Task: inverse folding
């Protein structure tokens, strides 16, 4: 088994740790993320998920415990630049990540900071814009783009640094359904190309994209497993006041009445197929 | 249910931003819609379709300057002499990400801004603020002296909505009021809107791109695409046309997609279903036969 | 009726795409030409020189394919200011200004009011200068994208970086500021509309718009400041995540190259400016 690209051990994080009223955002988190993983972290605002994300690229360092990126401890300031070029991060609000006044120049910002030679920057910019399907807009002013397009530019700007891991901190929160789908498509492509993805979200149906899901509540991990395993626990998710996709909701309700019917279905095609199959056994349609 | 004459009528409305400059943009090319008293109405469309531009005509922020007519509570909005402030008290408009309007140090003061501008007495202002804050789930006594900018995102959203509710309007126009909120926040906002409609008889106009939200909240839907009204009807009827909606860059509630899929497999279901409970009943009927 | 659309009247700073000769010049050329022209304008106070300078500025506008009406419309918001300044100069500056080529003749003298042919000249020259500078500034920004401008300025300042001058940092500050101008413009519009929807009187024409209480200003300014700080916080996180550590060690994707037409343009302009400066006191009138 390969070495984890991100490892977190007994991580506890408190804001204002030295003051009288520290706010503990994370408690005793243990986590290994392997190269190529697609991990989705779900939870409410205040559950600690953003805090955890920021520990992955040394924007925050643990109050107790440790975090390692590619074997480098995040507490060691010498490692910071190397860590941040290994783990790229995309944030919630598209506008507040874009620095330049032309799309391709913003995508070049990261590589320029790393001192990458000019010819190579131009290649990386072209490649990155291709992955997010924004090549046609490379000379446009960012403020003329839609939110979804801006977010894709932000992603391009991060992947142009050729990170091994990309962390999306609620990157779809401010997008409309079309924008969200465009971003998810780009992220899928990246994961297929071997980039490790850590997606923080509160949209449960996005959790279905990952191969592993972590549910955070009030600074701790409360549920983890494959999307199917996690979604199957409808009652617990309900108690946590998290969304259950309508597909899983329906499957679960039928499952309660008919135990042979699987209660952990995720997608529309799955539900349609499974219901049709069971219906056929009953001779419907005649 | 739509009864009587509409309180807002929009007829072939056009609007061009920055008209006459090299940057002009034709935002509305012919929007038609009516809002009836007491109803819960949904407006859907892709980002940039013209939904926000349209509703900004309801309270006079934008006036019809080209073709088209907008009548609100009997007033012709193209007339420069109408009492705009009076209209704004009757038609409350909550913008997308309304937290942007918060400016007072204390929550109670910010919610009081609207009533104060209306010139009400101190006692009436307090009463309005108390009612508005309690209605949105920010208990008056607990929140009135909190620092506005120390609230969580969801709480600030509610405070902003309370600020408009405090005007005691007859119509509440809510532009994507659940966007950017987590599931708990969304549930809270949707339930307060529903309460406003059911208990206070507020007429609701709800703009959203979240089909699941709309299905549970509104009775009628207008679809706006590229500056025009392209589809309208009862919620169930509009969502019964997923291919048409997809053509406009929109989806339908997941559960409706499922029912359509099942109908396509020859199963005897009503594909206009928009709620999981209804779907459950129909599917169970088949599987238990 | 309110009017929330301010962008329409802002012409300075607005890039107008075209393929004119001026558009194709290197931004450094245009900045340099602007500087030469400003020098020439500053030191020329005769009628003749200013007519010449106006004609030349106008010729540049034509060369740049920018509609003159568009630029003149940009003057509109400044007209009250011009009128006020002109009145001040006409009435009170008679004694201060002495034209280089002619004697100054007193026309009216009464207490502090002192109108002379000199102050009349001052008013006319000032107006002409204002137009020249409007043409040239608009020209620079109408034919050059902000981006190219900041690249040009950074390039011109870069030699100083060797001495510790923060050339890149300054140009990044300019770029970020410019990048956020439309964003804050939109935000301002949203806040104004939100507060107007709650009953505030914003952008109402006719009333004494300029007289505002601190509270009325707070309604707009506080939300914008909060918004600006939030954005700044986010942007810092994003920039740090992308390994920004200042200008040292950075490479540059965009490189500017002078073309022959740039050298010619700068050369001709330099000659013109030098001539205007050398002969500034020799123009008739």
Result:
């Amino acid at each position: 088994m390969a070495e984890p690209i991100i490892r977190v051990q007994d991580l506890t994080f408190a804001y204002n740790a030295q003051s009288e009223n520290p706010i503990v955002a994370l408690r005793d988190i243990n986590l290994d993320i392997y190269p190529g993983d697609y991990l989705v972290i779900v939870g409410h605002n205040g559950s600690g998920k953003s805090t955890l994300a920021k520990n992955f690229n040394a924007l925050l360092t643990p109050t107790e415990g440790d975090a390692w990126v590619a074997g480098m401890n995040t507490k060691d300031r010498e490692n910071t630049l190397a860590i941040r070029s290994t783990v790229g991060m995309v944030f919630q609000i598209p506008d507040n990540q874009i620095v330049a006044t032309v799309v391709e120049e913003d995508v070049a910002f990261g590589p320029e900071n790393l001192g990458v030679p000019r010819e190579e920057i131009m290649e990386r910019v072209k490649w990155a814009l291709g992955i997010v399907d924004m090549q046609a807009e490379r000379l446009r002013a960012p403020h003329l783009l839609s939110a979804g397009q801006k977010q894709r530019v932000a992603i391009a700007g991060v992947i142009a640094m050729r990170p091994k891991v990309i962390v999306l901190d609620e990157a779809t929160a401010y997008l409309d359904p079309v924008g969200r789908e465009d971003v998810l498509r780009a992220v899928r492509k990246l994961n297929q190309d071997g980039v490790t993805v850590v997606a923080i979200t509160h949209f449960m149906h996005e959790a279905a994209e990952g191969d592993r899901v972590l549910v955070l509540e009030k600074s701790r991990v409360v549920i983890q497993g494959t999307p199917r395993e996690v979604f199957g626990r409808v009652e617990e998710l309900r108690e946590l006041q998290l969304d259950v996709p309508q597909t899983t909701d329906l499957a679960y309700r039928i499952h309660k009445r008919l135990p042979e019917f699987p209660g952990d279905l995720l997608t529309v095609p799955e539900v349609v197929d499974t219901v049709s199959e069971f219906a056929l056994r009953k001779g419907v349609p005649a | 249910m739509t009864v009587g004459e509409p309180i807002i009528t929009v007829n072939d409305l056009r609007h061009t931003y920055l008209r006459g400059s090299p940057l002009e943009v034709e935002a509305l090319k012919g929007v038609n819609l009516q809002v009836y008293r007491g109803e819960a109405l949904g407006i859907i469309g892709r980002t940039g379709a013209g939904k926000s531009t349209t509703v900004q005509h309801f309270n006079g922020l934008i006036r019809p300057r080209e073709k088209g007519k907008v009548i609100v509570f009997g007033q012709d909005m193209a007339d420069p002499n109408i009492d705009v402030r009076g209209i704004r008290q009757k038609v409350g408009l909550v913008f997308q990400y309304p937290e942007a309007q918060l400016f007072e140090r204390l929550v109670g003061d910010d919610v009081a801004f609207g009533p104060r501008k209306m010139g009400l007495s101190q006692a009436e202002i307090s009463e309005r603020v108390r009612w508005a804050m309690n209605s949105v789930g920010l208990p008056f006594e607990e929140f009135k002296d909190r620092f506005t900018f120390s609230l969580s995102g969801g709480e600030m959203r509610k405070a902003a909505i309370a600020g408009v509710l405090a005007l005691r309007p007859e119509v509440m126009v809510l532009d994507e009021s659940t966007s950017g909120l987590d599931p708990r926040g969304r549930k809270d906002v949707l339930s307060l809107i529903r309460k406003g409609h059911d208990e206070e008889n507020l007429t609701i106009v709800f703009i959203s791109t979240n089909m699941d939200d709309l299905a549970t909240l509104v009775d009628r839907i207008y679809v706006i695409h590229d500056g025009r009204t392209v589809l309208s009807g009862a919620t169930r009827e509009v969502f019964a046309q997923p291919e048409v909606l997809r053509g406009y860059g929109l989806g339908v509630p997941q559960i409706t997609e499922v029912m359509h899929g099942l109908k396509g497999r020859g199963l005897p279901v009503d594909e206009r279903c928009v709620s999981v409970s209804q779907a459950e009943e129909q599917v169970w009927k088949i599987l238990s036969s | 009726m309110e009017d929330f659309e301010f962008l329409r009247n802002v012409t300075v700073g607005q890039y107008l795409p075209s393929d004119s000769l001026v558009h194709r010049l290197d931004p450094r050329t245009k900045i340099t030409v602007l500087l030469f022209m400003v020098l020439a304008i500053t030191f020329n106070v005769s009628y003749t020189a200013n007519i010449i300078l106006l004609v030349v500025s106008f010729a540049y506008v034509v060369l740049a394919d920018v509609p003159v009406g568009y630029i003149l419309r940009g003057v509109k918001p400044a007209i009250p200011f011009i009128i006020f300044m002109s009145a001040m100069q006409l009435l009170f500056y008679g004694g201060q200004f002495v034209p280089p080529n002619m004697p100054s003749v007193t026309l009216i003298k009464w207490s502090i009011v002192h109108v002379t042919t000199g102050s009349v000249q001052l008013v006319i020259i000032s107006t002409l200068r204002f137009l020249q500078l409007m043409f040239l500034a608009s020209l620079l920004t109408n034919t050059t994208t902000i981006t190219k401008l900041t690249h040009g300025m950074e390039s011109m300042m870069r030699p100083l970086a060797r001495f510790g001058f923060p050339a890149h940092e300054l140009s990044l500050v300019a770029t970020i500021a410019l990048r956020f101008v439309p964003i804050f413009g939109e935000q301002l519009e949203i806040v104004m509309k939100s507060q107007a929807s709650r009953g505030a009187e914003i952008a109402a024409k006719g009333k004494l718009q300029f007289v505002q209480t601190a509270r009325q200003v707070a309604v707009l300014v506080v939300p914008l400041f909060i918004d600006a700080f939030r954005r700044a916080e986010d942007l810092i996180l994003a920039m740090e995540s992308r390994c920004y550590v200042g200008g040292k060690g950075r490479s540059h994707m965009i490189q500017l190259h002078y073309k022959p037409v740039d050298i010619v343009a700068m050369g001709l302009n330099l000659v013109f400016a030098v001539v205007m400066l050398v002969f500034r006191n020799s123009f008739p009138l």
